[in-house]
Amino acid sequence: MWLSYLEKLLQAFPFFLKGLWMTVAVSGLSLVGGTLLGFAAGIVRASRVRILGSILFAYVDFMRGTPFLVQVFIIFFILPEWGLHLSAFKAAVLSLTLYAAAYICEIVYGGIAAVPSGQMEAAKASGLTWVQRMRYVILPQAMKTILPPLVGQYVLLIKDSSVVSVIGVTDVTRVGWFTVQRIPEGLMVFGLVGLLYFAVCYPLIRLSNALEKKMRAEEPGGL
C-alpha cells in the first residue's frame, strides 16, 4: 500500500515543483515590494512627521492586528465591489506585499531608533541635510540591527504565503490539497509539502542565525 502511494507521489512530483515555483514567485515578488515599501515607511515613521507617523501607525497596527487570511479576502473579494478586479496571483502578491511591509516597517523603525541620538545631532551639526544624515550616518549603523530580524521575517512570510492557496493560487500547498484527494495518505503528501518549504526557508534561517552571531560578536564584550 505504502509503495503504491509512494509511486503515485513520485508521479505527482513535477506538479509539486510547479507549485513550489509559484510559491517562490509570489513570495519573491512580495518580499521585494514589501521590503521597499517597508523601508520607506520605516524611514518616514522615524522622521517624526506627526500626520504621516499617525497614518503609518494605524496601518501597521491594522495589518499586524488582523489575520492575514482576512486581508487576503478583503483584497480578493471586497475590492472588486469597488471596481478593482485582480487575478488570484496579483491579489496574492498585493496582500502579501502589504502584510510584509507592515512588519518590515517596524523592524526598520526599531533599527533607526536604536542608533544613539547623538549620531543624528552630530550629523546635523556637520551641516548634512536630513536625507544625507539618514543615508550616510543613520542607516549604515541601523542596518546592523535591522538585517537579522529582517531575514527572519522573510522566513515567516514565505511560510505565510501558504494562505494564498485559499483564493486559487496553485502554490505548493494547493498542490498538496489536490494530491491528497488522490493519495489518501496525508502524512506522506504534506510531509513532502513541508520538506519543500523547508528547502526554501532553511538557507534564510542559516543566514539569519549567522547575522545574529556576527552582531553579537561585534558588540563590546561579545564572544
Briefly note the CATH topology name.
MetI-like fold
Overall 3D shape: flat
CATH architecture: Orthogonal Bundle
Number of domains: 1
Low-confidence runs of at least 5 consecutive residues: none
Counted beta strands: 0
Strand content: under 5%
Radius of gyration: 21 Å
What is the CATH superfamily?
A: MetI-like
Describe the structure.
Pfam families: BPD_transp_1. Belongs to the binding-protein-dependent transport system permease family. HisMQ subfamily. Residues 20-208 form the ABC transmembrane type-1 domain. The protein contains eight helices and no strands. The mean pLDDT is 87. The chain has one domain: MetI-like (MetI-like fold), CATH 1.10.3720.10. The longest helix has 45 residues, at 2-46. The protein has 223 residues and is mainly α. The chain starts with a helix and ends in a 5-residue tail after the last helix.
